[in-house]
Amino acid sequence: MTLRIDISGLPPERLRFAASPLAELTAMLHVLAEPGHHPQHAEWAAKVWAVLRPELAERLREAEFLWRSSQADFLIPARPRPTLAEELDEVDRIDDERYVTAALVTTCGSNRVRFGASSPLTDATAREWALDLAQARGARQEAFAERLLADPATVRARVRDTLEECAEAFFDEAWAGVAVQLATDLRLKNDLLKRQGIGAALASVSGAVTLAPDGDCIVVDKLQDKATAAQSAGVTFIPTVFGRPHLVAVHAPGWQPVVQYPVAEPSPSEPVSLETVTLRLEALAHPVRLRLLRTLVRGPHTTGELAHVWDLTRPEVSRHLALLRRADLVTARRHGRYVRYTLDLPALTALGTDLLAAVLR
């Protein structure tokens, strides 16, 4: 399971390391939506929620699909700017087609949402397919997708306004606190890139990011096997403090490759009994079950959704889910006509931070 970024013929200067206010705000929003992924920031998240104006809190819940399970591509800029306002201006320049498609990928909870020549803004069949996928994710997702497809300009303006309000409410203060860490990391990465080359710089990013032996490809350990090309635009690496332990990659067709990587080291986990470890490791020994967990960590999924993502039959998925439930790694809950399976993140955390980081990646 890797993402391969073709960099053949790419000049070294087109591989860049830069900080992004918008990408770090997106990481903070993910922490607020999924504090269980980031126990080191749980106290910060609780304090932020406690002081948010009710209207802003509701707006964040309304649009959380843009950053909760995965991040919309336009929130991880390929050309970082010094200020959040400048980066939001760049987002405003994206046409409705690209913006809406990127938003639907996260809202519908499927990395296979690709419409090709059929636009959900103009094609009724593509529109209904997107709404069906969003409906399966929940009422909020369906309502957001309906508003987005009916009036993208209004939704885009509302999302920008929400992000600007977040700056005043909590981001500006938090950004000032992490800016020094990010700057320190960038000096290290750019110095390695200049003095020792791409391989050394990538090795310092993460053990999950490597340079292929022939030097023509960056290999990133991610959820599915994918491939993209840097082309003339290059590849951008963005450090994050709040995003740890996630490794976020932008690789969809038409988007410049971007990798957001954590700068901090994970803290040690609490020990658990040998019996519990044995039971859970046996459940994780099968590669399909590990893949299912790497999907479930992005949010609750139904058996049908998991089968679709991995090209499996529903009975196959059900058998694997039964073993994961027996190991208390997964729980099931009925929502209307859907049964959604959820990863037990604390149980996974107890197995160790290396495993947790690999699954959250």
Model description:
The strands form 3 sheets. Strands 3-4-1-5 form a 4-stranded mixed β-sheet. Strands 2-6-8-7 form a 4-stranded mixed β-sheet. Strands 9-11-10 form a 3-stranded antiparallel β-sheet. It is built from 15 helices and 11 strands. With 361 residues, it is an alpha/beta fold. The chain has helices spanning 21-33, 42-51, 54-62, 84-92, 96-107, 124-137, 139-150, 152-196, 198-205, 274-284, 287-296, 303-310, 314-326, 345-350, 353-360; strands at residues 2-6, 15-17, 209-211, 217-221, 226-229, 235-240, 248-250, 258-262, 301-302, 330-335, 338-343.
**Rg result:** 20 Å
Q: Indicate the structural class.
A: alpha/beta
Distance, first to last CA: 11 Å
The main pleated sheet reads as: 4 strands, mixed
SSE string, helix = H, strand = E? EEHHHHHHHHHEEEEEEHHEHHEEHH
- DSSP E strands, number: 11
Q: What is the typical, i.e. mean, pLDDT?
A: 88
Shape: globular
Helix content: 40-55%
Instruction: Note poorly predicted spans.
Output: none
Can you count the helices?
Answer: 15
Main sheet: which strands, in order across?
3-4-1-5
Describe the structure concisely for a colleague:
The protein is of the alpha/beta class and 361 residues long. The chain has helices spanning 21-33, 42-51, 54-62, 84-92, 96-107, 124-137, 139-150, 152-196, 198-205, 274-284, 287-296, 303-310, 314-326, 345-350, 353-360; strands at 2-6, 15-17, 209-211, 217-221, 226-229, 235-240, 248-250, 258-262, 301-302, 330-335, 338-343.
Produce the secondary structure layout:
Elements: E1 2-6, E2 15-17, H1 21-33, H2 42-51, H3 54-62, H4 84-92, H5 96-107, H6 124-137, H7 139-150, H8 152-196, H9 198-205, E3 209-211, E4 217-221, E5 226-229, E6 235-240, E7 248-250, E8 258-262, H10 274-284, H11 287-296, E9 301-302, H12 303-310, H13 314-326, E10 330-335, E11 338-343, H14 345-350, H15 353-360
Parallel strand pairs: 1-5, 2-6, 6-8
Antiparallel strand pairs: 1-4, 3-4, 7-8, 9-11, 10-11
